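Dear colleague,

Thank you for sharing your sequence with our group. We've completed the structure prediction you requested, and as agreed, I am returning the results in plain text so they can be pasted directly into your records. Please verify that the sequence below matches your submission; if there's any discrepancy, let me know and we will rerun it promptly.
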Amino acid sequence: MFLHLGENVVVPIKDVIGIFDMETSTYGSDTAQFLRAAEEDGFVERVTPEKPKSFVIAEVDKKSKIYLSPISSVTLSKRTIVNFQD
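Please find the predicted structure tokens below.
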């Protein structure tokens, strides 16, 4: 099964490490610093130019990748549960 992150971006659910809310997760300086460092190192992919509501950490080709998604973390989480129940 796949998780649709917006636009034409999908990742296999089995590769998803975590789904995080952008607003509440970036309150802490550690998370904001982590995202900045990941972006500088080329590990971040913006799904759309819209303001991201969530970020998803996934393992792609044995490397971590962070997707900035315009879809809320709650909606993305629900999509993973629905897919696991099928």
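Summary note from our side: Residues 73-85 form the longest helix (13 residues).

Kind regards,
the structure core
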